Amino acid sequence: xARVLVVAxxxxxxxxxxxxxxxxxxxxxTLGRSERWGTIAEFHPRFETIVVTxxxxxxxxxxxxxxxxxxxxxxxxxxxxxxxIDTTLRGNVGVAVEAMxxxxxxxxxRRVVALCLAAHPAADRVTVEGHQLLGGxxxxxxxxxxxxxxxxxxSKISTVLSQxxxxxxxxxxxxxxxxxxxEVHAAIVDxxxxxxxxxxxxxxxxxxxxxxxxxxxxxGGDGIQWITVDPGPGAxxxxxALGLVGQSGIGALLAVSGSATELTRTQVxxxxxxxxxxxxxxxxxxxxAVPDVDATVPAVVAELAAxxxxxxxxxxxxxxxxxxxxxxxxxxxxxxxxxxxxxxRVLQEVRVDGLFTTxxxxxxxxxxxxxxxxxxxxxxxxxxxVAGEIVAGPWAGLPMVTKGGLVGTAETTIDCLDHLxxxxxxxxxxxRTASSHENP
Length: 440
Prior knowledge:
Layout: E1 4-8, H1 11-23, E2 28-31, E3 49-53, H2 61-75, E4 80-84, H3 93-105, E5 111-116, E6 125-128, E7 131-134, E8 137-138, H4 157-162, E9 169-172, H5 174-177, H6 181-192, E10 198-201, H7 206-220, E11 224-230, H8 233-241, E12 253-257, H9 262-274, E13 277-281, H10 293-306, E14 312-316, H11 331-349, E15 354-358, H12 360-369, E16 374-382, E17 385-391, E18 399-403, H13 412-428, E19 431-434
Parallel strand pairs: 1-3, 1-4, 2-3, 2-19, 4-11, 5-10, 5-11, 9-10, 12-14, 12-15, 13-14, 15-18
Antiparallel strand pairs: 6-7, 7-8, 16-17, 17-18
């Protein structure tokens, strides 16, 4: 499930922020502006970090408030929220922060405080005495002061935050930030005794961001819901401080087997014997070989939810000879269609980082249910066992390996799942871009 929600005011900044989370090993997606923010919830089971752009840097403040509030409500609940700001403080910075604070306060009983970590040291943006510096110069002393659309008249962060808002702002100066961890912690505890909305912290380095975030997380404990106000590195520092980074790795892999061939049964048994694998026998309708969708979905979801990172959950209609039965007319097509519906409903409810199917009819039914137009093929694992990513639809980009029921040797299914795991690792460190009005 999503653990971090970032609301950015432009797509470029959203992508840059998401890239930082992806590099840390969290699955990240960026969503474009939408009038239907409620569909953000569709991405909760598939990504740990959701970055939404409101495309509102130059919008009227009322439009900014509405967009931020809509995105936050749709993305809740998460453990960390962030207002992604421009590194040079352009746009409706204070209005967006105030809107996020006010909205989150309606959603939680915890105290809500924003931590402004505006520095982006890798981009030569640092914060000193509450001022944002670019290349060592105040913003108003750079060419930004003459920007045709959004001229920057001040580098003082508290002034920018105060424009059009009633925010109560405190500062954490560099002399405190560069102190010991205990001193930074004590300073934040002291600030939190007052009724503040935002703490603006100085920082020259990534280590400074990490130290402030760690101190804030410790000082707030379970009693504070933190919001970061930053261009990206600050949110990542706070996510690390809260223990949200590096916990999950890749998610589980889902294998769907609807083939009853002897070779498939042999491959499945070898997979179960040699790899970490949770097995779900498809529940069937009375006096039928067709899977009962409503009965099978919860069983698969439960195993996926309990699975370790990278573990395989196998949904199979036939595991051994005792499961074999003669299909009645029409049951073959109905079986494939049911497995397709089960797969779609499972993917709607729980994170899956790779999908394996065996059986041509099963693969076609699954892709049809996922609204996929096919696979963007990267190659063959073995002859006639194809690996690629789903093209189009809500699960576009999901790694998938597929093979026929009579393809390969006893080891082929293991080879396919091993290859799928490698694809999933690569994908988890990339950023997906999706439309927030998709409807699985």
